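Appendix B, example 12.
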Amino acid sequence: MAEPSPAVAAAIEGELRLLDPVVRASAERLASLLHPEFREIGTSGRLWTRETIIASLTADDAPRPGPLTASRMRGAQLCADLVHLTFDTESKGVHSHRSSLWRLTPLGWRLYFHQATPFDDGPPGGPHDGPFTEV
């Protein structure tokens, strides 16, 4: 397998930093990785902004998730200043497919958009399991 481009490698490094509980608990560290126009669609379907996600993750009463394991991380540089990453995570038995867009800014690569979709790790099947079947 070929080495990722420097842009993809930078986005992967940033994504892995965002999975670190120490980074997730620090408003300054989160701010340094999130684009000013950051948006996220979480596993619950909730829409998050840069401000709301930083406030939620760094609140004194914020839940502290267990270890988060990432797998199958892949990236593609879509243009000079945009990288798309896809990967899966698992924490406490909850699996999610994830997709991120990283944009190059004058301060470096910043997470611009992220979406997480929970999935069952069981065998495929069922009437709505396939491409273009969600309503």
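Residues 6-18 form the longest helix (13 residues). The CA atoms of residues 64 and 124 lie 31 Å apart.
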